Amino acid sequence: MKKITFFAGSMFSLAILIGLSSCGGSTETKTGSADETTVKETAVEVKAEAPVEQYSYAQGEKIFNEKCIVCHQANGEGIPGAFPSIKGSEFLKNNRLGAISQVLNGAAGGSTINGIKYTAPMPFQVDTKEDAVAVINYVANHFGNDFGLITIEDVKDVVINPR
Fold first, then answer.
1. pLDDT tens for residues 86-105?
2. 123 in a domain, yes or no?
3. pLDDT tens-place string over residues 32-73
């Protein structure tokens, strides 16, 4: 009986570890000590007049359901104190290029979003700017968000870090 309990506990721990390693963090740039962070915000004009489908809404939904839903949850509200909400997120609304960079490059963690500190790191989630634009446009216009759209042209200067 002890072997079964140990195995079940080990599997539960592994599931938690996998979940934590795939989400969290932000695009904040660390400066100074480990406890200090500064948000680097970059404004981008959003294209509200274009239909969402033009920017791979279905692909963005697919990516969200495969990669993001574990941490940010099906309702977009995240897990309080662990993973940030993307529903009504001022960070997502005001820092779309930062969000693009985050899904492309991950985030080390130790960030503060909307006054809440998140320590879980977020590994990169997608490999291409097209996928990053698709998923960010999806979350920016889902969960009650109406933040407009961005294009590949808008993110041409975003750097994808070497893997």
1. 999 999 999 999 999 999 99
2. yes
3. 333 333 334 444 455 445 554 555 789 999 999 999 999 999
Q: State the residue range of the domain holding 15.
A: 2-155
Looking up tokens 């599931």 gives: 15
Tokens, residue 97: 């290029």
Give the Cα-Cα-Cα angle 17, 20, 25 (nearest 5 degrees).
Answer: 155
CA nearest 61: which of 137, 147, 161, 145?
137
Closest CA to 95 of 80, 109, 73, 113: 113
Q: Which of 162, 129, 152, 160 is nearest to 47 (CA)?
A: 152
Here the CATH number for the domain that contains residue 31 is 1.10.760.10
Alpha helices in the chain (DSSP H): 2-21, 57-63, 69-72, 90-94, 96-105, 129-140
Q: What is the pTM of this model?
A: 0.69
Q: Which two tokens stand for residue 159?
A: 């750097």
Helical H runs in 106-156? 129-140
- Asked if residue 66 belongs to a domain, the reply is yes
Distances (CA, A) of 40 to 25, 50, 55, 113: 14, 27, 25, 12
Residue 13 lies in a domain: yes
